[in-house]
Amino acid sequence: MLLLPTVIGSWTLARKLGSDGPVDRLAATSAEGRPALARRIDADQLRDPGRLAAAAARARDILGVRHPSIVPALDLLSDGASTVLIEEAPDAVGLDRVLAYLRATGEALPAHVFLHIATQICNALEALHGRPSPAAGADQLLHLGLRPSAVLVSREGRVRLGRLALIPGVGPLPGEDADETTLEYLAPEQTHADQRLSPASDVFALGALLTELLTLRPLFRDQTPMRTIQRVRRAEIDDEMAEAQERLPGVEVALYRAMALNPRHRYQRAFVLREDLRGLMAEFSFKTIHEELAALAAPVFDWAGGEGDELPAAPRSGPVSEPHDEWMPLTERRLDPDRQDAVTQREDDPFALDERTDPDAAAEFEVSLPLIQALRENTIPPDDDSFDADPEDDEPAPQATPPVAYEDTDTIAPAE
Fold first, then answer.
1. Do 22 and 40 form a contact (C-beta atoms < 8 A)?
2. Contact at 8 Å (CB) between 18 and 177?
């Protein structure tokens, strides 16, 4: 266990901010007083020497990334068995907080702001995917941890990408020392230990994130981790695409292709998705987009820094979206009256039925948790069907994608 505060190299690790499973996030300060974010791989939690070495190699590759759209890493340290990556701590707010604000106020994200954020994320991913990952022995550097909290909006309305996954895969699990769950932002191939990962894996996660920006609820999140992974593996998105189409006609074509079940049918590079999204920009003006994004994010800074801050109660002027059951707190959902009494709100798993009071949830939780833990540890064999539907259920057909020419993604020119 790490005792805080502690000094490692020229950095002082002051306090713990949160965790992503076995990766702790800590507030750090340099000898000159420069604030930073430290991400420490907890060797006591991970334990597997092979995965620890792979995470350290990935951290070395991340340290070399320098791009205006990516939050830079500043230093790489070791406190014995654990690796500590020091990253810049920008004056910015994550999209997870922006989404929480929009949900609380009932306000929708303007379409042109959505397109700007989407294309900026594509730029950042393209910068990553254009780099090799020599320490990890990979041809391309992947993000593999894309989710709303990894996308930052500054006070000046600039969008940057950070928090590249140090340990790719499933996690953190509900009930662990983690402040968010990431199962719903995985690509289907990330839920299998033997599958090859590629830029198309990041593109799938980006598609899920962009859909959430339009619908204001996580695309694949379900009542239990097991059901969430089932939805990810099937890429069930038809209903949400209809809603996304209502918000921004034409965007569903790009999102369908980004989240095709077969990785080879997706965009193979982020900049190809960016160019398709730019085709929807013609009817909007982007002359003052940074000012507009800064104005949208400004109220979020008032409460994003404190855990006790309350979200604004009254909506601002602008388009209003109807509330959605899927992202509302469990205690506020319109549930089946027969099961209403069996539902309680849990701080460690805000979207799961309480297995302590609901017999059905208890049985499912008992089955799903060991399977997900095994998946995180890469111990599920490739032919394991533990997460598949019941045998009597009809297996859904693979997600169809709109007819799009894919051959142009095989050989591509460098991004401008």
1. no
2. no
Strand partners, 159: 153
Q: Which two tokens stand for residue 58?
A: 């990935």
Whether pLDDT at 377 is above 80: no
Query: How remote is the C-alpha of 145 from its chain's centroid?
Result: 6
Amino acid 315 reads P
> Is the pLDDT higher at 399 or at 259?
259
Q: How confident is the model at residue 175 (pLDDT cuts 50, 70, 90)?
A: very low
Distances in whole angstroms, Cα of residue 330 to Cα of each of 212, 215, 292, 334, 335: 18, 18, 33, 9, 9
Strand partners, 7: 12
**Three-state secondary structure along the chain?**
CCCCCEEECCEEEEEEEEEECCEEEEEEEECCCCEEEEEEECHHHHCCHHHHHHHHHHHHHHHCCCCCCECCEEEEEECCCCEEEEEECCCEEEHHHHHHHHHHHCECCCHHHHHHHHHHHHHHHHHHHCCCECCCCECCCCCCCCCHHHEEEECCCCEEECCCCCCCCCCCCCCCCCCCCCHHHCCHHHHCCCCCCCHHHHHHHHHHHHHHHHHCCCCCCCCCHHHHHHHHHHCCCHHHHHHHHHHCCCHHHHHHHHCCCCHHHCCCCHHHHHHHHHCCCCCCCCCCHHHHHHHHHHHHHHHHCCCCCCCCCCCCCCCECCCCHHHCCHHHCCCCHHHHCCCCCCCCCCCCCCCCCCHHHHHHHHHHHHHHHHHHCCCCCCCCCCCCCCCCCCCCCCCCCCCCCCHHHCCCCCCC
Return the higher-pLDDT residue of 386 and 133. Answer: 133
Q: Which residues of 145-180 are buried (b: 16+ CB within 10 A; e: fewer)?
A: bbbbbbbbbbeebbbbbbbbbbbbbbbbbbebebee
Q: Which amino acid, residue 95?
A: L
Could you tell me how many residues make up the chain? 416
pLDDT tens readout for residues 380-392: 444 444 434 344 4
Q: Residue 55 corresponds to which amino acid? A: A
Query: What is the per-residue pLDDT across 247-305, written as a single tens digit (0 to 9) for each?
Result: 999 999 999 999 999 999 999 999 999 999 999 999 999 999 999 999 999 999 986 44
Which pLDDT tens digit goes with each residue over 190-245? 988 888 999 999 999 999 999 999 999 999 998 888 888 899 999 989 889 999 99
